[in-house]
Each structure stands twice: as C-alpha cells, then as structure tokens.
Amino acid sequence: MYLTHLECPRCGREHDADKPRNLCDCGSPLLARYDLAAVAEVVTPERFGLRPADLWRYRELLPVADPRHVTTLGEGWTPLLRAPAYGAEIGIAELLVKDEGLTPTGSFKARGAAIGVSRARELGVARIAMPTNGNAGAAWATYAARAGLGATVVMPVDAPGICRRECVAAGADLRLVDGLIGDAGRLVAELVAGSAGAVFDAGTLREPYRLEGKKTMGYEIVEQLGWQVPDVIIYPTGGGVGLIGIHKALQELQELGWIGDRPPRLVAVQSTGCAPIVRAFAAGEERAQPWADAHTVAFGITVPAPLGDELILAALRASGGTAVAVEDAEILTDLRDFAAREGLLLCPEGAACLTAARQLRAGGWIRAGERVVVLNTGAGLKYPETVDVAGVPVLPS
C-alpha cells in the first residue's frame, strides 16, 4: 500500500493512517495522501487496461493494504455515454454522461461505501453509523452487510422509499427523523458519543476514505477518454464528496505526470431551493452559510450546511469553474427531454446537471466545441415520482 498519512487541508497537520480517524482537531475533514513517486515507479497508465473493469484497478492509489479486507460488489467502471441528440439541441456537440446508475445499489455512493467499508474493516471497526439523504445509507448498509459490520443509518422520513427498503433488506438499524439531513446528523453524533467507541461515525467527510472511492470517477473519466481530460465536468453538489474527489483525482494524475497541467473546469450544480455553495461562490467567500428552509425535488443535494464547503469552493476556484443553481421545474423538464431523445432515465440530481449545461452553453460560459462531461449520480428508476403518468390513457381489455 502506498498510503503514507492523512493530511488536514485547513491547518496542514499530518495524522497517522493506521487507526480509525474522523476530523482533524481543527474541525476539517482529512485527506489521504500517497507516495505518488513510488506509485509512478510500479505502474503506468497502460497497465490499467489489463486489469478487471472495476474501481479496484486503481489499487495502488487506494487505501486498502490487505486484499482480504476488500469488500466489493463489482462497483466502478461505469459507462461514459455520448448524448448526440440532446447535445445538438443545447449546442454542445461533445456532451457525455457518466452513468453511475449502473453501480451496485443504483448510485455512485457505492464507490465510497466500497472503499470506506473495506478500510473500516481493515482498521478493526465493528459498527458504523451515518446520516444520509438516502442513497449513501443504502450503499453503506449493503456493503457493511457484505463485510460483516453492523450499521446504523439515520435518514429524513422524506427520503426516497426505495433507500429505506434497501437499508432494511441489508439488516441495518434504520432510524427515520422528521427533518433534514442535519437533524439526522445530530442524532448520529449523540449515538456515537454515547457508544464509548463502539460505533464509528462514517458520515460524509467525517472519515477520510469515502472520498477515496468517489475520486475513482475522475480516474475513470480520464482513462475512458484515452488519458485526456474534458474541458468541463458538471457535478450535482450536496455534500460535495464526488466533486472534491474528482478534483483530488485530477491533482494526483497531474502529479503523476499522466495528464497535462490544464484541469477541466468543475461546475457545482445545486437547486434554487438549497444553494449554499452557489451563494458563497458568488459572494467570493471561503465558507458557506447554512441554507434556511431547504427543499428540492433533487433530494440527494438537499444539504443545507455541507461539511466540505471549503474544499468544494477551493476546487471550483482552482479549476476556473463555477457554481450554478437551477429550478426544480427545469430539472424535471430536462429529465424528460433527455430520456425522450437519448433513452436514458436520469436521477433528478443528474438532470440538474443537464439544466446547468444548457444554461451555461446559452450564456457562453461553455464554448462551442468544448467537451463536457455530466455526472448522472444515480438510477432514475429510484425516483419514479419524477415522471408524471397521470395523463396516460387506460384502454379497455
């Protein structure tokens, strides 16, 4: 394993990576760091194509030392699909969709769960607990079951029903709260504090290894494009782990010398009903203030106070990117238009990225001829209420 230590991006303090850790003493999430010079000596980009088509093909850049602790359901290596019909309609000839709906449990959250659970198992964790808006809880409950770990999951009562059922099916201790993810987080904090160390907090960015699973989306995009980077990557942003992870992957690839010095411009997409990152980015602030009365049809990005706000904003600015808030009505319209033209039903969070792409192209921020990658973070089938079938005729038998 080439993992060397954990680093605090806020205060710079280094931490050993040989035991379970949550936040730095200063309150910041921790980032896993690797001996990239040593990695470059043992593997080249050409080698990855000879390995199995899953995220573990990048094992030198992942934090699990002993393969006996690897917990997998075949996650990763999702398709990067061209969308020529919809792309032509909105003026982006090279529009591509990275479809994370094909991962186990139906969302990109399986990537973080695979690495997070594997590393937790390796470090001796027996039970994890986490707040979630739905998909992350389903993924972590599923992978915890496969690894033989206990799992307590707390989610808002309005979270997608399928996610609740996935947790119950996986044998998790599921608890529902009449509130938002922040309310669920407070319940998890109380549980962990009262457990005398028996329960590990695996909430978003509260441990450093979920991020390592999410960063593999960045590796895959670059490899699938022949070790070239796109011009723009558009990501639905709630907790922001996926966007932070992609940015981290691109930084590591640059340090390895496997891509050039010009990174893709990253775009964080939020709903107008919950847009703390967009507001902070527009104001030039380094931290985001909590969003009051958060609500959106894209439930996965309903995160009023993301813990990783500093890292999200830093990634946007370092890449020359931007942050966009879109209306729920436009999300649902673009979801249907895309499905009718391309035959792929996106989750509402993924559809929000289409809305952002359309608006950014219309405004000239995305230029003609640029290659744009949109992340569809989950299977549209997990959100059946986004497609209205009330007007469909019923015929007599």
Automatic annotation (TrEMBL):
SUPFAM superfamilies reported in the protein's UniProt record: Tryptophan synthase beta subunit-like PLP-dependent enzymes (SSF53686)
Cofactor: pyridoxal 5'-phosphate
GO molecular function: L-serine ammonia-lyase activity; pyridoxal phosphate binding; threonine deaminase activity
GO biological process entries: isoleucine biosynthetic process; L-serine catabolic process; L-threonine catabolic process
Keyword Lyase: yes
Keywords: Lyase, Pyridoxal phosphate
Domain of life: Bacteria
The Tryptophan synthase beta chain-like PALP domain, residue ranges: 72-378
PROSITE patterns found in the cross-reference section: DEHYDRATASE_SER_THR
UniProt xrefs under InterPro entries: Ser/Thr_Dehydratase, Ser/Thr_deHydtase_PyrdxlP-BS, TrpB-like_PALP, TrpB-like_PALP_sf
Protein name according to UniProt: Threonine synthase
Organism: Micromonospora echinaurantiaca
